[in-house]
Amino acid sequence: MTDNKLIDKLDNDNIPVFSVSEITSEIINLLEHKYSYVKIKGEISGETGNKYPEIYFTLKDEENVISAIIKRNKISHLKFLPEDGLEVICSGKITAYTKRDSKFQIDVDSISVQGEGQLLKMKEERGKKLEIEGLFDTKYKKNIPFIPNKIGIITSPSGSVIKDMQRIIFERFSVPIELYKATVQGKKAVKDIIEGIKYFNNQKTNLKADVLIIARGGGSIEDL
Predict the structure, then answer these.
(1) What is the number of structural domains in the chain?
(2) Closest C-alpha to 112, from 98, 134, 92, 132
(3) Enclosing domain of residue 98
(4) Exonuclease VII large subunit C-terminal domain: from which residue to which, for each copy (predicted)?
(5) With DSSP H G I counted as helix, E B as strand and the rest as coil, what are the percentages for the chain, rounded to 5?
(6) Is 162 in contact with 217 (CB distance < 8 Å)?
(7) β-strand 65-70 against 55-60: which pairing, if any?
(8) Max Cα–Cα distance, the chain, nearest Å
(9) How far apart are alpha carbons 220 and 224 in whole angstroms?
(10) CA 171 to chain centre
(11) Is residue 82 exposed (0-12), middle (13-18) or buried (19+ Cβ within 10 Å)?
């Protein structure tokens, strides 16, 4: 069929005419229906951190990229926050954003790291960063008394870890302990642990714990 005949056929056939909004809506419905929930693996790039209420980044492989968003109500449920260069698997649903340029993205519910090697790499890189900042310098280290007068513990009150620690401490030394209740996993853990350290540091001298333990029980490597 020649180009002219094809043009005539298109002009004569009963082909519906869509507005931009109508065709966009049709495409979104098809996309979200077929890929209602997916898992996508790729490397994180362009992560925005805490600049916005949501976290934005892209997932990429050797040939293509796809935009990703983590909405504010899901951030606290993540096992870890995304970092550039990590190989991950993102779970969520495909959605479309059409306010400016029409594009699709994955609305992320959860993230897992691809393999233990990636987790160990992330841990090593964080350790190097803290070492460069001087946080491991021996000048900051304090002597720990062999038998403390009082032990402060920052941990969850509901886990098995506090029960084990109480039992062992009382069996071996029988020294007073004080528990500061804290979340030890997820985004809220940072705030809770910092507040716990401040609480013990601000105690009066005669009541102050001279040893402080921040404790967490077992779990997967990814959770830790």
Answers:
(1) 2
(2) 92
(3) 3-116
(4) 135-224
(5) 35, 25, 40
(6) no
(7) antiparallel
(8) 96
(9) 6
(10) 38
(11) buried
Q: Are residues 85 and 10 in the same domain?
A: yes
Q: Domain for residue 196, yes or no?
A: yes
Distance CA 164, CA 160 (A): 6
Are the CB atoms for 165 and 153 separated by under 8 Å?
yes
* pLDDT at site 91: 94
CB–CB of 145/210 below 8 Å?
yes
| 164-173, Cβ contacts within 8 angstroms, sequence gap of 24 or more | 165/213, 165/215, 173/147, 173/148
pLDDT at 133 over 90: no
Q: Are 48 and 60 in contact (CB under 8 A)?
A: no
Backbone φ and ψ for 112, nearest 5 degrees, come out as -130, 150
In the 8-state DSSP scheme, what is residue 146? S
User: Does pLDDT of 218 surpass 70?
Assistant: no
